[in-house]
Amino acid sequence: MHPGHGNCWLKQPEIASIVEKAWLYFDGQRYRLLVWCVMPNHVHVLIETFDKFPLGGLLHLWKSFIAKTINNRLQREGTV
Description:
Layout: H1 13-25, E1 31-38, E2 43-49, H2 55-74
Antiparallel strand pairs: 1-2
Helix pairs in contact: 1-2
């Protein structure tokens, strides 16, 4: 992705922290967090899933919680 393309909210430390805290919250309980990178306009994460918690459910949980929290912090609505 081209640098600076799209919304770059994640370059704000307090917004990037929302993503990191969400990933760390269930680390060791629902998955093992191996490595991650928060870029200004997107993220990368590598996890090892546990049998009881399928990847699709984890992604839905993260995306929903992170989007709602970021929108609340930025006092906005819509897609993050």
